[in-house]
Amino acid sequence: MCGIVGAVAERNVQGILLEGLKRLEYRGYDSAGMTVRSPQGQLQRQRALGKVAALEERLAAEPLPGHSGIAHTRWATHGRPSEQNAHPHQSGERLAVVHNGIIENHEALRRELEGEGYVFTSETDTEVIAHLLERESRRVGDLLTAVQGVLAHLDGAYALGVIHADEPDVVIGARKGSPLVVGVGIDEAFLASDPLALLQVTDRFVYLQEGDAVRLSRGGVIKVVDADGYAVEREVQTFEHGDGAASKGDYRHFMLKEIHEQPAVIAAALEGRLGERSVLVESFGPDAEALFGQVKQIHIVACGTSYHAGMVARYWLERYTGVPVQVEVASEYRYRQVVVPEGTLFVTLSQSGETADTLAALRFARARGYLASLAICNVPGSSLVRESDLTLMTQAGPEIGVASTKAFTTQLTALMLLTLALGRVRGLDAGEQATLVEALRGLPGLVARVLELDPAIEALGTAFAEKHHALFLGRGAHFPIALEGALKLKEISYIHAEAYPAGELKHGPLALVDSEMPVISVAPNDELLDKLKSNLQEVRARGGELFVFADEQVGLAEEEGVHVLHLPHVHEALAPILYTVPLQLLSYHVAVLKGTDVDQPRNLAKSVTVE
Ligand code: AGP
Fold it and tell me: Is the C-beta atom of 601 inside 6 A of ligand 1?
C-alpha cells in the first residue's frame, strides 16, 4: 500500500532512493516519484506514471543531485493513477511530502485550506498534508515541530516523509497506523516503509512506534519524539535475514523463488520449537504455559491467505485440543457486536503484521475482555507483533511476491505448533503428540519432493491458459486449501476461480460444470477420501475435466478426462501444508503462460495498510 523511502547522506541520495523504490515496488506500482533538495537549496522533483522503471528513465535523462530526499511508489486510493496524483506532493516550491495510508478527514481539511487560498493540483488526500505543513512550518519555523503540530489534525493512518528547502539535509518522518522504519547508517540515516528497501545501505533499524516522529539530519543524527512530543531513545535492531531476500537469484520471479524456499523456511519455523516428543510451549513466550491452561475458546481473525490458514487451523485445534474455534475475516469482525465468552484467546494471523483490518481487529478486541492476544506473524517489529500479548514468528523471511506462498505454509506450520502446544497443556495423548512431532520433522523433506513435480505441473498448466473459469474442490481441512488454490489462480492469472467443499457441488455449482470448466481437486489419504471420489465422479459424469493431486497410496488412476499427479504420503494432519504446494505451482505456471505480471499482479499490493 504505497512505499516510502527517505535519505540524508554525504553522497548523492538519488541512487539510494531509487534502489529503495525498486525494493518497495511490491507495495504499489501505479506511479512513482522523488524529490531531492539540490545543493543550491531548491526542491527538484521527478514523477512518472507506471512502474519505478519509468521514473528511472526520467532520472537518467534529468538526474536529481543532492544529499537529502524522499521518494514514493504508489497504490492509488484517492485519485486515479496519474502523474499528477503521484507523490511527492508539494505546497509551493519549498515543501514536499510522501505519504502511505489514508487521511479520513481530508475533505474537510481541503475545504478549509481552499478557503485560505491554497490551490490543489491533485485528487489525493495527501496534498492536504503538504499544505497543512506549509502553513504550520511558516508559523512555528521548524519542520519537526510543524509535523508534530499537523499530526494532531489528521484522522486516519499515515506514514510520512517530509523535506523543506529551508532545512538543508533534513528529512522528517512520522507514523501512525502505517509502517515506517529508520535505517541507521554510518554518518547517514534513512527512512523506509520496510527494512528491505534499505538493506543495500544498512542492516540496522529503529522500528518507529505508533505516533512517533523522527528527524534525520547530516552525519547520521537521528532524533525520535513520541506521540506526546518527548524525545525518546528507541532500540536499534539488526536485520537478521540478510540481503539475499531482496533478489530473485536464478529464479525468473520472486514467487517461484519463494515457492522453492518452502522446505527451508518450514524447517526454520520449526527450529528450536520441537522437543523430542512434543512442542516446546515456551516458544510462545514465558507466560504461554499458564495462559494456555486457561483457554476455553479461540477466535482467529485475519485477511486473505492468512484467513485461509486460520480456517485450516480450526480443523486442527478442534480435533486435537477440543477447544471450540471461530474464524473470521478481519474486515467483518471489527464491525460486529462480538460476543466474547470467558477464557477466549484472540489470535491474529498476518504475513506483514501491518494489514489495516487485522490491526484494527486487534485493537477492537483489546477492549472486549479476551483472555489474551496472540499474533502469528512474519515481520518482527511490526505493529501486530508489538501490540499483542504473545507472538510466534513464522520465520519465512521477507516475501516479495504479492501472491503469498511461503508465508502461508509457514503460518500453517506455526498453527500446527500452536495446536500441539495447546494440546500438550490440555493433555493430548503423548503418543499422538510424538507422532505429529515426528511428522513435522519430516515435512520439509516431503515439500522438497513435491517441488520435484514442478515440470509435470507446468505441463498441466497448458490446459488452463485458454480457460476463463476454474473450480477447486476439497473436503475437511482441504476446503480452505481449495479456497487458497482458487485465490492464487485468480490473483496472478486473472482466471475466475471458485472453491467449494466437494460435498456442496450438487447443491448448485454442478450446474457450471462442462468441458470448458476445469475442476481441480486435492485428494489426500484421509477419512473423507471415498466421499471425495464420489464427488469427483459427479463431475466426470457431466463432462468436466478433472485435475487431481492425490496421495500415492489412494489408487486414483489416470483415465480419459482425469489427470492425476501423485504426491508422497504424508500424515493426514499435515496434508493441507503439502497439498498447497502443487496449487501454488499450477497458478504460477498458468500465469507465466498467460504472460501476466506474476510478482505484481494488477490492482493489488503486498501489504494492505488501508481499510
Ligand atoms: C494473498 O496472496 C494476498 N497477498 C492477500 O490475500 C494477503 O494474504 C492479505 O492481504 C493479508 O495480508 P497479511 O497476511 O500481510 O495480513
Answer: no
Tell me the Ramachandran region of residue 455: left when phi exceeds 0, alpha when psi lies from -120 to 50, beta otherwise: alpha
List of residues 6+ apart from 407 with CB closer than 8 A: 305, 306, 351, 378, 394, 396, 399
Kindly state if the Cβ of 402 falls inside 6 Å of ligand 1: yes
Q: Which pLDDT value is given to residue 547? A: 93
CATH architecture, domain defined by 248-452: 3-Layer(aba) Sandwich (3.40)
Axis crossing angle, helix 479-493 with helix 304-321, rounded to the nearest 10? 170
Nearest to 556 by CA among 526, 577, 533, 531: 533
Name the 3-class secondary structure at 544. Answer: coil
What residues in the chain have per-residue pLDDT under 70? 1, 241-246, 609
Query: Is the CB of 358 within 6 Å of ligand 1?
Result: yes
Alpha helices in 25-125 (DSSP H): 52-61, 106-115
Q: In a mutational test of the pocket of ligand 1, which residue from 75, 308, 351 has the highest number of ligand atoms less than 8 Å from its CB?
A: 351
Instruction: For strands 204-207 and 181-184, give the pairing.
Output: antiparallel
Using a 6 Å cutoff on CB, does residue 587 contact ligand 1? no
* Distances from the Cα of 48 to the Cα of 119, 130, 344, 580, angstroms: 22, 19, 50, 38
Name the 3-class secondary structure at 170: strand
| Per-residue pLDDT tens over the stretch 427-478 | 999 999 999 999 999 999 999 999 999 999 999 999 998 899 999 999 999 9
In angstroms, the CA 347 to CA 354 distance is 15
Q: Which fold has domain 454-611?
A: Rossmann fold (3.40.50)
Whole-number pLDDT of residue 245: 64
Distance between start and end Cα atoms, the chain: 10
Most informative mutation of 311, 382, 384, 404 for ligand 1 (most atoms within 8 A of CB): 404
Q: What's the rounded Cα separation, in Å, for the pair 361 and 611?
A: 11
* Rounded Cα distance, 234 and 212, in Å: 10
Residues of the chain with CATH 3.40.50.10490: 248-452, 454-611
Q: Is 490 a catalytic residue?
A: no
Q: Is 2 a catalytic residue?
A: yes
Asked if 410 contacts 269 with a C-beta cutoff of 8 angstroms, the reply is: yes
Question: How far is 24 from 3, CA to CA, in rounded Å?
Answer: 5
How far apart (Å, rounded) are the C-alpha atoms in residues 576 and 572? 8
Given the residues 176, 406, 488, 606, select the one marked as catalytic.
Answer: 606
Distance between CA 346 and CA 299 in Å, rounded? Answer: 5
Q: What confidence score (pLDDT) does residue 18 get?
A: 96
Nearest alpha carbon, ligand 1 atom 6: 304
351 lines ligand 1 (CB under 6 A): yes
Among 59, 133, 64, 122, smallest CA distance to 96 is for 133
For domain 3-246, the CATH architecture is 4-Layer Sandwich (3.60)
DSSP string, 414-463: HHHHHHHHHHHHTT--HHHHHHHHHHHHHHHHHHHHHHTTHHHHHHHHTT
Q: What is the per-residue pLDDT for 510?
A: 85
Q: Of the candidates 65, 118, 116, 123, which has an alpha carbon nearest to the alpha carbon of residue 95?
A: 118
